[in-house]
Amino acid sequence: MQGYRARIGYTSVAFVTEIFTHAFYKMAPDGVTLSLVTIQQSEFSKNEMDRLYADTMSGAQRLASSGVDLLVLGGRPVLLSRGESLTNIETRLSGELGVRVTTDASAQLAAFHALGSRQVATVHPFSEHDNDRHDRMIEQLGLQSAGSLGGGCDLVGLPKIPVSKALEWGRAMKKRSPDADTLLFPCPHWAVIEAIDQLEAELDVLVVTNLQATLWYALRQLKITDKIPGYGRLLRER
Length: 238
Hints:
Layout: E1 6-14, H1 19-27, E2 32-40, H2 46-65, E3 70-73, H3 76-79, H4 86-97, E4 101-103, H5 104-115, E5 119-124, H6 131-140, E6 144-150, H7 163-176, E7 182-185, H8 196-203, E8 206-209, H9 210-221, H10 233-237
Parallel strand pairs: 1-2, 1-3, 3-4, 5-6, 5-7, 7-8
Helix pairs in contact: 5-9
C-alpha cells in the first residue's frame, strides 16, 4: 500500500508545484508519500495574500478529511498575513481538524536548533529588494541574520532555475557573509537539494533548505528516524 509508513499532507503555495514533488520523492524513505494541495500564487499583493490564506485553510480541511498522518502548511508570509502567530495557527487547526498540524517555518526553526545554527545567511531566488524581509524572518525566529542574497527570479520562472544557480548564489552568499555558519534556501519550488552536500563540503557551512527541513521535521514528528544520505547533515545525522 502506498504511504504504509506515513502520509504527509502539504499545502503548497506556488505558481505551479513541480520541483517540490520531484525533490520530495528523491529524499523521502520508502513507504512515505505526499498528499498535496496546490494554492496558486501569482503576486505578493495584500489582496492576493488574503485569497491565498483562505485557500490554504480550505486546502488544509481537504487534506485532513483525506486522512493524512501529519499536515504541513507551506507559505509562511501567507500564514502570517492575518497577524496570528504560527503557534496559534498550528494549535487551532490541530484541534479543529483532528490531525497534527505544523508549518514549514516550524520545521526550519527545529532544523536550526538541531544543527546548532547561530548566524544564518539566506539565499532566495527573488529580487534583492526582498532581502530585508528575509533578514527579518530569521530574526523573528530568534537567530542572527548574516544577510540575504536574491537571485532576481519571479514566481513563474522558479521551476526553470538550474541547480547550478543554487551553487553559484550559495558561494556568493558565503563570500558576502564569511561568518555565517548556516545557509538557508527558504523556497521549496526551485532546484536546490542537489547542491546541499556540495555546498556543505566546499564551504564548510551547514545548509538548510525549506523542503529538506520540512521532510526531516515531518518524519521526526511521525517517529520515523531513518538517516538519509546525500542531502546534507540534517537528514544524514539528525
